[in-house]
Amino acid sequence: MAVFIDAIDEALPQTQCTRCGYPDCRGYAEAVATGAAAINQCPPGGEEGIARLAAITSRATLPLNPDHGVEAPRVLARIDENWCIGCTLCIKVCPTDAILGANKRMHTIIAEACTGCELCLPVCPVDCIELDNASGEATGWEAWSQEQAVQARSRYQKHSNRRASSMRRPAKGHQATPAADEDRLAASSLPAALDTSAASSTSAAIPMPSKVTNGDTTPATTAAPSDKKAMIAAILAKARQQRGGSNQA
Ligand code: SF4
Ligand code: SF4
Ligand code: SF4
User: Fold this and answer.
1) What's the mean per-residue pLDDT of the chain?
2) Phi, psi for residue 241 in degrees, rounded to 5
3) What is the CATH architecture assignment of 75-194?
4) Which residue's C-alpha comes closest to atom 6 of ligand 1?
5) Closest ligand 2 atom, CA of 131?
6) How many other CB atoms sit within 10 Å of the CB of residue 93?
7) Residues with CB under 6 A from ligand 3
C-alpha cells in the first residue's frame, strides 16, 4: 500500500492547497489509494492530473469536480509592502515557508517557493496580499513542472518537520510557543535589506507601538491583555482606513 500511496503522491502537484478537501497532497494520496476519495478533486493538477491518477489507480477518468474548484492559470502571491503591518499571520499558514518577515516588519514572498496555494490570503487582516498570474494561459501541469512539485514537497516536509519539532521541544527557562519559535526562525532568515526596524518609509506609514505583537503569540510585553487588544484593533482599523482611502483615490 505504501508504494501505491507514494506513486499517487508523486503524481500530485504538491501545492498543499487543501482544495481537494484534505490537509495536504499526501492526505489526498492516501484517500485516493484507499478509495475514500475520487480522482477528480485536485484543481491544480487539472485534467492531466486526473489522467495521471486514472492510470495509476486503473479507474476511469472523470471531469474535475467543480466543488473543489476549477482548473486555472497558476498564480503567485505578492505582498503590498506599503500596507503590511508585520503581523506574521501569513508566515504561520504558508506550507512552503515562502514568506520572509518578522513581527512588526514588512513581509515579502520568495517567488520560487510560492506554490500559489492562496492559503495566506484569508488570514491577512489588512488584505495586502495580491495574486499575480504566473503562467499566462497555461493551466494544470502545463503551468507547473515535476521539478517544481518535487521542490514544493521538500519545502513542505521541512516546514512540517520544523512544526512537529517545535511542538515537541520542552520550554527551557521560558514559555516559548510554537508560533513564537516560528517568528524567531522567520526573523533569523530575514535578509538585511528587509530589516525595517530602522524606520523605513513603508513601515512608517503605520505606526507600530513598540510592545505590540500579534495576538496569538504575545511574548514579553508589559501591556495588559485588554490594552494589547485595543492597540492591535487600533492598528488594524487605521490600516484598513488608510487602505480604503487609497483604493478610493
Ligand atoms: S495540489 Fe492541492 S488539491 Fe491537489 S492534492 Fe495537493 S492539496 Fe489537494
Ligand atoms: S506565499 Fe501564500 S500562496 Fe504562496 S505558498 Fe505561501 S501561503 Fe501559498
Ligand atoms: S498577514 Fe498581511 S499584514 Fe500580516 S504579515 Fe502577512 S502580509 Fe503582512
Assistant:
1) 79
2) -65, -45
3) 2-Layer Sandwich (3.30)
4) 25
5) 3
6) 14
7) 79, 84-90, 101, 107, 123-124, 126, 128-129
User: Which pLDDT does position 244 carry in this prediction?
Assistant: 60
Q: For 131-172, how does the pLDDT look when each residue is reduced to its tens digit (9 = 90+)?
A: 999 999 999 999 999 999 999 999 999 999 998 988 887 655
8-50, pLDDT tens digit by residue? 999 999 999 999 999 999 999 999 999 999 999 999 999 999 9
What is the residue-wise DSSP string for 128-161? -EEEEESSTT-BGGGSS-HHHHHHHHHHHHHHHH
CATH topology (fold) of 2-68: 3-methyladenine DNA Glycosylase II; Chain A, domain 3 (1.10.15)
Domain boundaries, the chain: 2-68, 75-194, 207-248
Spatial separation of the C-alpha atoms in residues 72 and 15, rounded to whole Å: 14
Ligand nearest to the CA of 118: 2
| pLDDT at residue 149, rounded to an integer | 98
**Residue to mutate, 121, 128, 212, ligand 3, most ligand atoms under 8 Å from C-beta:** 128
- 150 contact partners, CB below 8 Å, separation of at least 6: 14
Residue nearest to atom 8 of ligand 1 (CA): 20
Atom of ligand 1 nearest to the CA of 28: 5
Best residue for ligand 1 mutational test, from 28, 30, 70 (most atoms within 8 Å of Cβ): 28
